[in-house]
């Protein structure tokens, strides 16, 4: 029997607080949406891109602006491979710990490098005031299940079970192209993709519109 894990799939009462955010797509067909947070970095992101290319999968990368600034060639490869991108703040800031205006400026700084109307808050945390502002300027994308690949305390086997136990049609699935997640990511992502394909799942990127930042 599957054990409900609130870290992997947040309870309905929490997702209801952010109704305008996308947690899962309404899909009757077996379609899922792979997403990757915290990159791009040269140590991990190219490996992810190679795997996705081999599997003929399009995904969505929620990028940290500082990393895009440091590694523009890796970011460009994401775009060249036909993946979607989204804003994940410039410095991976958690909204709960930041003043609203400083937080918004950090997001707009990231938007100088990431021209997308998609936004995902680091750790999924936002103040209500931040949520109400951002939903009018971005499509806020959360997740239906998070693999917890970033957690060094859990095994790759547990990370894989997090996906296989909780995936469903329309799931937005979160992995991380980061150093912290590298071990669990490389051990589980190929297996997770293979298993989902065997179950008949297809993979789509989350569509985005190009958003040009007009800050002066």
Shape: globular
What is the first-to-last residue Cα distance? Answer: 56 Å
CATH class: Alpha Beta
What structural category characterises the helix and strand content?
alpha/beta
SS elements, strand count: 8
CATH topology: TIM Barrel
In the CATH hierarchy, the architecture is: Alpha-Beta Barrel
Main beta-sheet strand count, sense and barrel state: 6 strands, parallel
Total domain count: 1
Which runs of at least 5 residues are low in confidence (pLDDT < 50)? none
CATH H-tier superfamily: Glycoside hydrolase/deacetylase
Task: Write up what this structure looks like.
The chain is α/β, with parallel strands linked by helices and 216 residues long. It has a single domain (25-203), classed as TIM Barrel (Alpha-Beta Barrel). 36% of the residues lie in helices and 13% in strands. The chain is built from 8 helices and 8 strands. The protein has helices at residues 12-15, 45-55, 65-70, 72-80, 100-111, 128-134, 156-166, 182-198, and strands at residues 31-37, 60-63, 84-87, 118-119, 139-140, 145-146, 172-176, 202-203. Strands 1, 2, 3, 6, 7 and 8 form a 6-stranded parallel sheet that branches. A two-stranded parallel ribbon has the order 4-5. Strand 6, helix 7 (156-166) and strand 7 form a beta-alpha-beta unit. Helix 7 packs parallel to helix 8. The protein is globular and about 45 Å long. It starts with 11 loop residues before the first helix and ends in a 13-residue tail after the last strand.
């Amino acid at each position: 029997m599957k054990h409900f894990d609130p870290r992997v799939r947040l309870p309905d009462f929490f997702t209801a607080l952010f109704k305008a955010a996308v947690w899962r797509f309404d899909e009757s067909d077996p379609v899922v949406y792979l997403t990757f947070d915290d990159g791009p970095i040269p140590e991990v992101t190219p490996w992810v891109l190679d795997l996705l290319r081999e599997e003929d999968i399009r995904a969505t990368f929620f990028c940290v602006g500082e990393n895009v600034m440091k590694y523009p060639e890796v970011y460009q490869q994401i775009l060249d491979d036909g993946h979607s991108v989204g804003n994940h703040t410039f410095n991976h800031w958690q909204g709960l710990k930041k003043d609203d205006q400083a937080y918004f400026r950090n997001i707009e700084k990231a938007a100088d490098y990431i021209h997308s109307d998609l936004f995902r808050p680091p750790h999924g945390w936002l103040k209500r005031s931040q949520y109400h502002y951002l939903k009018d300027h971005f499509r806020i994308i959360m997740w239906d299940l998070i693999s917890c690949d970033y957690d060094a305390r859990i095994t790759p086997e547990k990370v894989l079970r997090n996906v296989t136990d909780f995936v469903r049609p329309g799931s937005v699935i979160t992995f991380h192209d980061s150093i912290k997640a590298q071990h669990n990511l490389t051990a589980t992502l190929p297996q997770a993709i293979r298993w989902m394909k065997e179950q008949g799942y297809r993979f789509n990127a989350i569509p985005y519109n190009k958003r040009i930042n007009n800050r002066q």
